[in-house]
User: What shape does this take?
Amino acid sequence: MTTAASKVLTFTQTDAEFTEFFERAQEISDLGNLLGLLGWDQQVKMPPQANQVRGPQLATLQALLHERQTHPRIGELLNVLEPRVQGDGYSDADRGLVRLMRRNYDQNTKIPAALVKEVAVATAEAWGTWEQAKPANDFASFAPYLRKLVKLMRQVADHLGYQGSPYNALLDQYEPDMTLDTLNPILDRVRDATVDLLRRIQESGQKIDTSCLHGNFDPARQLDLCKALLQKMGYHFDAGRMDQSSHPFTGGGGSPFDVRLTVRVDPTYFPAALMAAAHEGGHGLYEQGSDPALARTILAGGASMGLHESESRLWENAIGRSLPFWKHHIGLLRDAFPETFSRYGVEALVPALNEVKPSLIRVEADEVTYNLHIIIRFELEQGLINGDIDVDDLPSLWNQKYESYLGVTPPTDTQGVLQDIHWSGGSFGYFPTYTLGNLYAAQIYHTLHRAFPDYDQRLEAEGTGFILDWLREHMYASGQVYAPDEVARKVTGETLNPEYFVQYINAKFGALYGLSA
Ligand code: ZN
Assistant: This one.
């Protein structure tokens, strides 16, 4: 870290109001991180009977956090500090903290406590019903709960305030400042380009042999392989750990010093754990890369959900499924599974890791078709919130879109509209951040190639160290100091542009499937 950069990320220590504000912000950050730690424990280590006490403990801590976040003194201090930090003598970190605290304060004070409670009760009921409706293929039993959540989310949007569609208010919770006016044309472009590429891939008749990925792979060796890969990527185990959970995630007690991730092992298919390690490792590197000056402030960590997902996707797909990466790291696989990888080399591995195959299930989707799964959900939830789509019509609209974009039709709602947890938890506006992640990843990948004209040769010769150094300096260190658009401009020179992703998939998969340009 250069002196100039450190100064930008240092907080002002000479202003009495700012000091009081900073201490309150630290308390809020601590409470949030403790909730994160308890959440990690719940999914990874907690004994079953702890359920009896964990729920109330989380509720107590949540209430305490809400009380601190909405304290009237925060509002007073924000009013004083907002104009003041624009002047000389204040750093980017000061301005970032005031910006983010204002955003959180407004969001937390705008929604009445009674509505917060109503949403909490409704999501608990909806989730409980969805958990039974999904295996039973029983959308009808879930529909009334979903309808109620849609109604409540519209009320939440009304309280938050919006221009245009109420969906904008919900989207903004996950991707600050993003609106449908910007997002719709971007996702239309991605959808049309992807449907076209998928059609050309299928017409090529090319089949990829994926047999090197399937077999019997000892779970303990898989876990060692994941740890070895994370170490090579530059993930610090003295500021994190790797465990197992049913759904892989990254969490922990506070960036950059406590960033924990999980994987899920499939004994017959090693990429399930290995590529989850690369994905969560990308999230982890972003979190561990925050400047230490940002620790115990809400500015540590990723600048938005979309930018966070860009780093998991960059490391998992653009880097972690590439030929130069595996030319450098094939020894890891040979050491872990000599029986398989004495027979197979990178020429078999890399195409197999990139096979394109339309499927019904989002979490199993490849790099090309993944965004179509997201765009279907985005189009449907936008219609639900705007009132253009009725809940009862969801299953048939879902199936029509799968048929039209992916060429597959779900035989059951279990494999269709009921597959994801998100809507049952009231998360409307979350899905698009997955695709935003893929788009930002391609844009950043393009920037890396501009910064390093010998990118491929270097990656093959020396591994990913130079990539991580660059990302830390240009993106990770500043955490949430800057708003998402500004991060994109600082890192890549422009705001989100879907053409980089369109070029990326056409070049990569055109070569893999031998398509003419
Ligand atoms: Zn992710």
In short: The two ends are 43 Å apart (CA to CA).
